[in-house]
Automatic annotation (TrEMBL), chain A:
Region of interest: Disordered: 1-27, 61-110
Phylogenetic classification of the source organism: Eukaryota, Fungi, Fungi incertae sedis, Mucoromycota, Glomeromycotina
A UniProt-annotated Pfam family: RabGAP-TBC
Protein name, as recorded: Putative GTPase activating protein GYP1
SUPFAM superfamilies per record: Ypt/Rab-GAP domain of gyp1p (SSF47923)
Molecular function GO terms recorded: GTPase activator activity
PANTHER family assigned: LD44506P, TBC1 DOMAIN FAMILY MEMBER GTPASE-ACTIVATING PROTEIN
Listed Basic and acidic residues bias regions: 88-99
UniProt-listed InterPro entries: Rab-GAP-TBC_dom (IPR000195), Rab-GAP_TBC_sf (IPR035969)
Residues covered by the Rab-GAP TBC domain: 190-412
UniProtKB/TrEMBL annotation, chain B:
Listed PROSITE patterns: RAB, RAS, RHO
UniProt GO cellular component terms: endomembrane system
CDD domains named in the record: Rab2
Pfam families: Ras (PF00071)
Localization: Endomembrane system
GO molecular function terms noted in the UniProt entry: GTP binding; GTPase activity
Topology in membrane: Lipid-anchor
Protein name: Ras-related protein Rab-2A
């Protein structure tokens, strides 16, 4: 696989994105007609959606709105089989919009933003991986490149860990409690990437524990999602407000990362969020949910590729792979949100309750900090709202969030509510010494951009945070008066 | 910028308006003098601060930048009360963001202090070719509702400084005239300790209180 540098120009294209509701039949190489939902259009273009004739619209000719996505960036030196991008290759006649888009100036051509591009990097036996992910378990082992970087003790430790996972996962009826115990401690990044994907799907009870039901259930759920997508877009866009919000938020999701700036990923995220929103009218789409889908998308992508998913341009993925990543991400996001739905319904009462509890707990465990914040006029809502709304995803690099979710998911259903609250308590408490010596403005600015970026925060910091949260939860949860001042 | 730097006044602002009109970009341009096209979307509220100089007075602006999405409205409303200045922003390239101004204005009038200075801002003035709201329309709306008005570009920085500073000038004028009860911080104004102790309000510019 050739690693090739190329500039941001080809990746961070001037903004174009999918307009759901535009559905066009595409001739595939085999001659079969597939439906492609979505079309590119330039940002700010005035689009009217008037079609309302349901399914017949699906079979209609491409409308004048429908222009094809730009060809994938195709740096010299990378060759890939021509059928990979067949469904989305550029052979449409209406190219005027793209021309205009391509001619726009590049916003950022700073050479320091050169991005290393992944090659295709697909794992072998893709068809089997899609159909029956559990088939990967038996052959899981540490990769040769990983082993080379380890000393004997590390290798033995990781092998022991992998074998424990395998023991649990090879059972015909998986013991979820045993899996929770393993996952709580974190799934080491050195282990095969399939392991986390499978574990998360099992812990969310998306993938059934019973071996006999796994293949069938996955196929059904994925089919159900594809049908939901078709249905959601069949009559054009029912909810313009929600769609527009998602449409402008998706390109603002992880703006610095190749995976989330490539158009194919953005189209997937847009469909996932829109379908979720219209299936959940009580909350609809709330900003921040766009962040919550990304750990799933990234972890499930890494099931199929041998590359660092953050640097991966998903336009290199075969469509059937992309489809199942999208469907699985949708369902797992749905499961997560089921547990914290009142964070996003009217007035966001779930978040307000969490913030009140955070304040109460800080009063109990760190009275001097609580007093200082009060003296400076800092309200918890001012900084902790985002902590709850985005589950600390704005405060930590994504790789740390993924590690935290190993534990959150192992905490049963309340990992993202109760346990998360205690993580926030431990997190705020951690900065106590600094905060106590600062004034209102310094506190606000500090809490808004905490020094948690990858360089400063290590995996061990996350482990400490999680174990402190565990300790606090054991002490205070279900003990509302413990150490409280009467 | 250290916040220990002595100030004469702290004035609190709130920035409101539809989603995607450029509220956070205006704030970033004002506080950091830079433009970030792919800005993280704002969740709830975000905070920014900068000093400005009005008639020789050191005024610290503390600014709450609010999320535009409807879902956050019940959270963001609680920030109106403590604001002496409000920047109400629309996007000159998106008509609907202008059409929603009345809703925003009603919300602001209902939840904020009656003395709050409101500046209407038509942002993205660099995108002249995509303009959907004329300057005259913006101006007429502002006149009709007693607001200040400016078109800005957070991208080129055009008028950004002016929009924040002119708002501060008007508020300072009101302070001098005794319109605000500056002893009550919930009106969005805090008087520097050295001015408070002299207990001489309103102040003129030449009473020698510039300690730095």
């Amino acid at each position: 696989m050739a690693d090739i540098n190329f500039t941001k120009k080809s990746l961070l294209r001037p903004h174009t994105s999918t307009l759901p509701g535009s559905v066009k039949p595409v001739e595939s190489k085999t001659g079969a007609t597939k439906l492609v939902i979505g079309a590119t259009y330039s940002y700010g273009q005035n689009v009217s959606l008037t079609s309302s004739d349901g399914l017949s619209y699906l079979q209609s000719q491409p409308s004048q709105l429908t222009s094809r996505r730009e060809p994938s960036p195709n740096p010299p030196g990378i060759t890939f089989s021509s059928d990979i991008n067949d469904d989305i290759s550029d052979k449409d006649s209406s190219k005027s919009q793209e021309k205009e888009v391509e001619d726009e100036p590049v916003i950022n051509s700073d050479p320091s933003t050169l991005i290393e591009k992944s090659s295709i990097g697909l794992k072998p036996d893709i068809a089997l991986l899609i159909k029956d992910p559990m088939k990967t378990i038996d052959s899981m082992k540490l990769s040769n490149s990983t082993v080379k970087q380890l000393n004997e003790t590390q290798r033995l430790r990781l092998e022991r860990c992998l074998n424990k996972f395998k023991d649990v996962l090879q059972s015909a009826n998986i013991d979820l409690d045993a899996l929770r115990n393993l996952s709580w401690l974190g799934i080491p990044n050195e282990l095969p990437s399939e392991l986390r994907s499978i574990t998360w799907q099992l812990l969310l009870e998306y993938l059934p524990c019973n071996a006999d039901r796994q293949v069938k259930t996955l196929a059904q759920k994925r089919q159900e999602y594809f049908e939901s997508v078709s249905k959601a877009y069949a009559k054009g866009i029912a909810d313009r407000t929600i769609w527009h919000q998602i449409h402008i938020d998706v390109p603002r999701t992880n703006p610095g990362t190749v995976l989330y700036q490539c158009e194919t990923t953005q189209q997937c995220l847009e469909r996932i969020l829109y379908v979720w929103a219209i299936r959940h009218p009580a909350s609809g789409y709330v900003q921040g949910i766009n962040d919550l889908v990304t750990p799933f998308f990234q972890v499930f992508l890494s099931f199929y590729i041998d590359e660092n998913p953050e640097n991966y341009d998903t336009s290199y993925l075969p469509k059937n792979v992309l489809d199942v990543i999208e469907a699985d991400s949708f369902w797992c996001l749905s499961k997560l949100l089921d547990g914290i739905q009142d964070n996003y319904t009217f007035a966001q009462v779930g978040i307000q309750r969490q913030i009140n509890k955070l304040k109460d707990l800080i009063n109990r465990i760190n009275a001097p900090l609580a007093a200082h914040l009060q003296k400076e006029g800092v309200e918890y809502l001012q900084f902790a709202f985002r902590w709850m709304n985005c589950l600390l995803m704005r405060e930590m690099p994504l790789k740390h969030i993924i590690r935290m979710w190993d534990t959150y998911l192992a905490e049963r259903l309340d990992g993202f509510s109760v346990f998360h609250l205690y993580v926030c308590v431990a997190f705020l408490d951690k900065w106590s010494d600094y905060l106590k010596s600062r004034d209102f403005q310094e506190i606000m600015i500090f809490l808004q951009s905490l020094p948690t970026e990858t360089a400063k925060w290590k995996e061990q910091d996350i482990e400490l945070l999680l174990s402190e949260a565990y300790r606090l939860k054991s002490l205070y949860h279900e003990a509302p008066n413990h150490l409280s001042r009467v | 910028m250290s916040s220990n730097y002595t100030y004469d006044y702290i004035i609190k602002y709130i920035i409101i308006g539809d989603t995607g009109v450029g509220k956070s970009c205006l704030l970033l341009q004002f506080t950091d003098r830079r433009f970030q096209p792919a800005h993280d979307l704002t969740i709830g509220v975000e905070f920014g601060a900068r000093f400005v100089d009005v008639e020789g007075k050191k005024i610290k602006l503390q600014i709450w930048d609010t999320a535009g999405q409807e879902s956050f409205r019940s959270i963001t409303r609680s920030y109106y009360r403590g604001a002496a200045g409000a920047l109400l922003v629309y996007d000159i390239t998106r008509r609907e963001t202008f059409d929603h101004l009345l809703i925003w204005l009603e919300d602001a009038r209902q939840h904020s202090n009656s003395n709050t200075t409101i500046m209407l801002i038509g942002n993205k003035s660099d995108l002249e070719s995509k303009r959907a709201v004329s300057y005259a329309e913006g101006e007429a709306f502002a006149q009709q509702h007693g607001l200040f008005f400016m078109e800005t570009s957070a991208k080129t920085a055009d008028n950004v400084e002016e929009s924040f500073v002119d708002t501060a000038k008007d508020i300072y004028e009101k302070i001098k005239q005794g319109v605000f009860d500056v002893s009550n911080e919930s009106n969005g104004i805090k008087v520097g300790g050295h001015l408070q102790s002299k207990n001489v309000l309103p102040l003129t510019t030449d009473n020698g209180n510039n300690c730095c």
